[in-house]
Design a protein that fits this description.
Layout (H helix, E strand, L loop, with lengths): L2 H15 L13 E7 L2 E5 L13 E5 H5 L9 H11 L13 H7 L7 E5 L2 H7 L4 H6 L4 H7 L4 E3 L6 H18 L5 E4 L3 E6 L2 H22 L9 H9 L1 H10 L1
Parallel strand pairs: 5-6
Antiparallel strand pairs: 1-2, 1-4, 2-3, 4-7, 6-7
Bound molecules: zinc ion.
Zinc ion binds next to loops.
Length: 252
């Protein structure tokens, strides 16, 4: 994929996520990114609105430069801002990338990812801001849920957004990859929102759509006595069935 088509797909995906009727992101909520090459990504400029994004609203950012700050234990808010500014690969650019750029960038450590969208979907956040957040967002309800979103998702308890959150996500995703032997398709951030991760923009839209549909169903189950999640055995069966693997590829 060349950078023109990456930017075209990223813009379309962003507008999809920011369409107000979907309830995934309104005003300046959420952020999106796409891989350009091994060390660079496009990421939403701070303050831009997903629903009205144009190709000029993304900034090229160096992954290695922006993730350096993760290992600076005493980094201040000013250091984070300087790091974000210094990582922009366009010297004439005065805008800053989104504050969640560090989090996006560290996830591209996994070559499987080409596109990422972070949103605050209404039904997902109905669960993520509830006492049942973890079980609701990591359990699986039906075969399509497993096919689209994998065996489970990464759950991240609430921590301070920005650098602290980025470090927490890095640790939890690494742990997930160790146990699941593949990178996650979704991160569920308590009291915050959803990250959908995929090779293509289409896959990221599909994951977000499925997460939100399942969240609507879950909200129904909680008012009907509680969800009945699939058993681990049934989830594993769907996750490893050759026909379901094929279906997963077809869906993107
Ligand atoms: Zn957010």
């Amino acid at each position: 994929m060349n950078s023109t088509s990456i930017l075209k797909d990223l813009t379309a995906m962003s507008q999809y996520m920011g369409t107000p009727s979907r309830g995934y992101a309104i005003l300046g909520e959420g952020n999106t990114s796409a891989r350009i090459d091994e060390d660079s990504i496009y990421v939403k400029a701070s303050g831009a609105c997903l629903g009205t994004m144009t190709e000029n609203d993304f900034l090229p950012v160096s992954i290695s430069k922006v993730t350096q700050i993760l290992d600076v234990s005493d980094a201040t808010d000013d250091d984070v801002r300087d790091c974000l500014r210094g990582a922009v690969l366009d010297s004439g650019e005065s805008r800053l990338p989104s504050v969640e750029t560090i989090l996006h960038a560290l996830l591209y450590e996994y070559p499987e990812y080409g596109f990422i969208a972070h949103t605050h979907p209404t039904a997902c956040n109905g669960l993520l801001c509830s006492v049942n957040a973890q079980e609701a967002m990591t359990g699986r309800l039906c075969p399509d849920h497993v096919v689209m979103m994998g065996r489970t998702s990464v759950f991240v308890p609430y921590v301070d957004p920005g650098l602290v959150l980025a470090r927490e996500v890095r640790a939890r995703v690494r742990q997930f990859v160790e146990t699941e032997h593949e990178p996650p398709k979704a991160l569920a951030l308590e009291n915050h929102g959803l990250f959908a991760l995929g090779a293509t923009a289409k896959a990221v839209m599909n994951i977000t759509d499925m997460a939100e549909k399942m969240a609507h169903i879950l909200l129904g189950t909680y008012s009907a006595g509680g969800p009945k999640f699939m058993t681990e055995k049934d989830v594993n069966r769907i996750a490893t069935r050759p026909d379901e693997k094929y279906r997963q590829k077809e869906i993107g």
